[in-house]
Fold mannose-6-phosphate isomerase.
Amino acid sequence: MFLMKNQVRPYAWGSRTAIPTLLGAPSPSPEPQAELWVGAHPADSSVLLRDGAEHPLRHAITDDPHALLGSQVAREFGATLPFLLKLLAADAPLSLQAHPTAEQARAGYDAEESAGVPIDAPFRNYKDRSHKPELMYALTPFEALCGFRPTEPTGQLLAELAVPELAELQATLAAQPGEPGLRAVVTGLLTADRSTVAPLVEAVAAACAARAGTPGPFAREFAMGAQLAGHYPGDPGVLIALLMNRIDLAPGEAVFLPAGNMHAYLSGFGVEIMASSDNVLRGGLTPKHVDVAELSAVVTFAPDEPMLIPAVPVGPGEHAFRTPTPEFELSRIVVPPTGRVLEHDGPQIVLVVEGSVTLTDAQGTQLVVEPGRSVFLPARQGAVWLEGPGTLFRAKDGLVGTGTTGTAAVTEPAELSLV
C-alpha cells in the first residue's frame, strides 16, 4: 500500500476554500482550487510515495499491470487504471458538456489522429479512445443540470417569461415535442450568429431576474438563468440551460451521468469518479470550442429524469453507489468502532474525508491517513485492516465478481516492484 501525492487543478471556476480546508492548507488559497485528481490519468498522474522516493502511478502500472491491477482488470482494460477519482469544488458554473460512448470515442479519436489534428489543439474533440461516464457524490449541497426536461413544462416556463423574442423557439417545441424539438432548438441556438443570439439571451436574462424572487414552480430556474447570464453574457448556453433538469443534491446523494447526457455542475463540493478519459464535447457556457455537429451526434436529446443512485449497504459501515459502468464503483465507508477489513482482487484507492484512518497490512506496516490524503492498494496487496474513527471513499473497478468485503483474515501481500 502506498501513500499518494495528488495534483490540484486551478481552473477559474474552482473554490478557494473547499479543497484547501479539507487538506488542512491555508484557506482561502491564492488561486482557485477546482479539482484534486487521484489516479493515473496521463494528463496528471498521481505519484506513489515509498522509502522517500516518488513513482508515478501511471508508470508503475505500465511496468507491472498484473501486479497492480490484477489479471481480470488488466485483461479487460489493458495496462491502464480504468477509473479516475476527483474532489471537485465549484464556486461558479462549469460549461455545458456531454461525453461520447466508447464506440464514438474510438471512432472520433481515430479520425482525428488520421487527420493529423494535434492532441493539444483547442478544437480537438477526442483526447483518447475511452468513454467517460461519471458519478458525482455530494459532500455539500450541490447544484447541477442533468439532461433535458420534458418539453411541456419547458413550454410553461418559457411562457411565464413572456419574452416575445422566444416565440419561434416556443413554436418549435410545441410543434415537435420531445427529442426532435429539443435537437432543433439546441443546434439552432449553437449555430446561430452570436450577434443574433446575444440580444435574446439578454432579454431572457432580464425576464429571469425580474421573476427570480417571485414564488412559483420555476423560481429556481429563473434565478439560475439570471446567474448564468451574469457569468456568460450573450452565451446561448444560458437558453439551453433553461431547457434542462436542474437538480439539488443533498450531502450524501449521488447522480450518474451516462454517455450522451448533457450536464453542467453549477456549484458545490463533491467526490467524482469516472472512466479515465478526458473526452469532453462542450455545448455552451464556455469561451472554448463548441463542435456543434459532433455534439449533436453525441447528445441524447430525448427528455429523461436524472439518474439518482441509491446507497446500497455492502459491508461493515460501507455503502456503495453502483452504476452499469464496469470501469468503476464508488463506496463510502464510515469505519466501525471495532475496525474492519478491506480486500479486493483489483486496484483500489481510498480517500479520507473526515477523521483519521489507520491502514495496517499483513506485515504490520501502518499508514495513518488524514483528510484529503489517499492510499493506493494494488491488486496483490492482500487484505488491509482499517481503524478509525474516520470516513473515507473507496474507489475500485466495477467488474462483477472481482472482490469481497467482510472479515477475512489479513494475508501476506505479494512482493511488488515499482522500479
Summary: The longest helix spans residues 194-211. Confidence is low (pLDDT under 50) at residues 402-419. The first strand starts at residue 2 and ends at 5.
